[in-house]
Amino acid sequence: MKIMLDLQDITVIKRNKKIVSVQELTVKPGKVIGLIGPNGAGKSSLLKLMALLENPTTGIIHFNDLQVFPGKVNLTERRKVSVVFQQPLMLDTTVYNNVAIGLKFRKTPKKVIKETVFYWLKQFGIDHLVEDRAKNLSGGEAQRLSIARAMATNPEILFLDEPFSALDLPTRRKLLKDFQQILKETGTTTIFISHDYHEVRYLCEDIILMFEGKMVDYGKVEELPFKRFTNDVNQFLDEWMTPLIDEDRIEKAMT
């Protein structure tokens, strides 16, 4: 099977401190992968490397069998990647223009832009807001718009940095359900950071565990609860999984 992203012997050093250390990490097409770890574990730094936004200090990165580090990422490869951040980055214009911007940069024909924008706004249930100003959207609407914009350019790989964490529980659950269906339909390779076990278990097949800058595990989500690591890592995982266990108990008690 084709390898979409391959990292070998990666380190990131800032202010004389090693903040990321990954010996080997391979991502195959169509995978949905959760990236977890406590605050300061190096998750965001690793995501930026994989998304071709930053370079490591040392190591080798291949994207679609093309070596992009050491080397220079060309515009063609960079445009195959989309990134969604925790706080939606909105242009001060209409919802339509926010989704259309990436397509315009790619010199997409106007008719195709219109069809694509309306398709993705409808997929995320916000097509009725097409002429609204993006700055006036609610948190849930803005995040739906942000993901719709990312998907509109048909990325080969999508990165998300805690995209649902700022949303209230009902909004988050609805968006998760819609997003899961869209990923099934598109088969888009996806890597996202989350502090929520429910999100990761719901969306992901595989999971990357970061701790103190090191990738300590990369495997199946369902296998993680049965693995044992150092005491510090075990404590983090126990605390990370507890809210979902409590939530499951509450839901069962209500049914």
From TrEMBL:
Database matches in Gene3D superfamilies: P-loop containing nucleotide triphosphate hydrolases
Q: Does the keyword Nuclease apply?
A: no
Q: Which residues form a coiled coil?
A: none
Q: Which GO terms describe its molecular function?
A: ATP binding; ATP hydrolysis activity
Output the SUPFAM superfamilies linked to this UniProt entry: P-loop containing nucleoside triphosphate hydrolases
Q: Which InterPro entries match?
A: AAA+_ATPase (IPR003593), ABC_SmlMolc_Importer (IPR050093), ABC_transporter-like_ATP-bd (IPR003439), ABC_transporter-like_CS (IPR017871), P-loop_NTPase (IPR027417)
One family from Pfam that matches here is ABC_tran
Highest taxon of source: Bacteria
Q: Does the keyword Metal-binding apply?
A: no
Keyword field: ATP-binding, Nucleotide-binding, Transport
Q: What is this protein called?
A: ABC transporter
Q: What is the originating organism of this protein?
A: Schinkia azotoformans LMG 9581
All residue ranges annotated as the ABC transporter domain in the record: 5-237
